[in-house]
Amino acid sequence: MATLFGNYLRGQRARRRISLRQFSQRAALDPGNVSKLERGLLAPPESEDVLMRYAGALGIARGSVEWQELVDMAAASRGELPPDLSDDAAVVSALPLLFRTLRGQRVTPQLMQAVVRKVRESRSKDTR
After folding, report:
1. Would you say 25 and 48 are in contact if contact means Cβ atoms under 8 Å apart?
2. pTM over 0.85
3. Is residue 5 within 8 Å of 77, Cβ to Cβ?
4. 12 close to 73: Cβ distance less than 8 angstroms
5. Domain 2-80 grouped into CATH 3.40.50.20
6. SS3 118
7. What is the per-residue pLDDT across 1-52, written as a single tens digit (0 to 9) for each?
């Protein structure tokens, strides 16, 4: 799973034509560790500060869609939910439904509507 983030990072560097050494210099990181990360030998960083260094080296702005993708990819590669989702009780309560669906179990329309209602209620509370 750790290679998911590594492949993502390598792809972002390649798309921007940034070498491993250039990236490492820009982010003030050890090139050997970046290489290990890209090959799945090191886990993605948990620290938002370190992820910001990665983003800065790639020219990714905090709060952008690419930033969210970077954070989400790091969390998924560590086998975790992104922090903003893990703190949302409605999302966490809907996870068993998602797991059942991913395992191929049938989910009734009523159950799906109940989950959607819970998430919407949670989101409307957050905007108040």
Report:
1. no
2. no
3. yes
4. no
5. no
6. helix
7. 557 899 999 999 999 999 999 999 999 999 999 999 999 999 999 999 999 9
